[in-house]
Design a protein that fits this description.
Low-confidence stretches: 305-319
CATH superfamily of the largest domain: Glucose Permease (Domain IIA)
Order of helices and strands: EEHHHEEEEEEEEEEEEHE
CATH topology of the largest domain: Glucose Permease (Domain IIA)
Radius of gyration: 47 Å
Number of helices: 4
């Protein structure tokens, strides 16, 4: 394409040659310029009309704002519905937790009425309007209070169960010798040394020399000495004025003041002191008064579901005190 420009004053002519690429580039530049001018003019007219309240512009602005608010309201409403559904699921789980807490409280010996909980709810479903944000926040606040109460309730139950566990661990219900046979029991018998009637204040477990002797419960060693009658003796205080005594040991592995666990080895079966053979003499004292240890061991047998010891006559030559 060729353009010829003639200057009438100077009587000259200029020829401009436009190729296809140059012509396309010029068209694009002209189109972009028109677009920028139109956008600027539209923006200026729209802002001026909105500020000055031109009828047509004001109507358009109201429609745009209304549509934006409608979209925002729809978005918020949909999110509130999702949150309300999640809230309902959380409330159901809290109710299940409360039900579980009531069952566990019976095991812990806690009265569920000691902690105020939200009463049960129910009934047929009759759908109504959607929750508002204020109602949702109020429900969340109630749920938060309810979870705090449930947490306090569970803490009380945990402390009671822990207390019961500690008490159980501090009661001598574990057999102090495994594999031994039970010889002389608690009560009156013929003394093997004098041949007269005498009170036997504990249980005698016949066992092999050096067999391990275990603590029947957790506690503190209060005595570890050689006694003229009990021989190598260990006494363990379990609290609540309850003490266990282990006598006639050949070796002792604890000393006074040691903390021992339930089932911990404390000595070895021996024949020291006033004894006629290898065995363990085991006593349980409450406030210094000897009790029948079999009652405690039977309680442990019922809890564990296993026998404590086999009652049998002592082996030949294996006398006891």
């Amino acid at each position: 394409m060729q353009l010829i420009i003639t200057d009438a004053w100077l009587a000259k002519s200029h020829a401009i040659h436009l190729s296809g690429a140059k012509l396309l580039l010029a068209f694009v530049a002209l189109w972009l310029s028109l677009m920028l001018v139109s956008a600027g003019l539209y923006h200026w007219v729209f802002l001026k009309g909105a500020r000055e309240g031109w009828p047509v512009i004001a109507t358009l602005v109201k429609l745009m704002v209304k549509d934006e608010f409608a979209q925002r309201d729809r978005f918020v409403r949909e999110n509130i519905e999702v949150m309300a559904k999640k809230l309902g699921e959380m409330q159901a789980k809290v109710l299940q937790l409360e039900s579980l807490g009531e069952r566990v409280s019976g095991l812990a010996g806690v009265n569920p009425m000691e902690v105020k909980t939200k009463p049960g709810q129910g009934g047929a479903l009759v759908r109504g309007r959607d929750l508002t944000m204020d109602e949702l926040q109020l429900t969340l606040a109630d749920l938060d209070q309810l979870t705090n109460q449930s947490s306090d309730f569970m803490t009380v139950i945990e402390s009671r169960l822990f207390e019961q566990k500690i008490k159980k661990m501090m009661v001598p219900t574990q057999t102090p010798v495994t594999g031994g046979t039970l010889g002389s029991i608690f009560g009156w018998r013929i003394d093997p040394f004098t041949g007269t009637s005498a009170l036997h204040t504990g249980l005698d477990f016949a066992a092999e020399p050096g067999a391990p002797v275990y603590s029947a419960a957790g506690g503190v060693v209060v005595t570890q000495e050689f006694h003229p009658e009990y021989g190598n003796m260990v006494e363990i205080d379990h609290g609540n004025d309850l003490i266990t005594r282990y006598a006639h040991s050949s070796k002792v592995f604890v000393k006074k003041g040691d903390l021992v666990k339930r089932g911990q080895r404390i000595a070895s079966v021996g024949n020291t002191g006033r004894s006629t053979g290898y065995h363990l003499h085991f006593e349980v004292l409450v406030q210094g008064v000897p009790q029948d240890p079999q009652k405690f061991l039977n309680a442990g047998r019922h809890l564990a579901g296993t026998p404590v010891a086999q009652t049998a006559a002592p082996p030949s030559g294996g006398g006891k005190r």
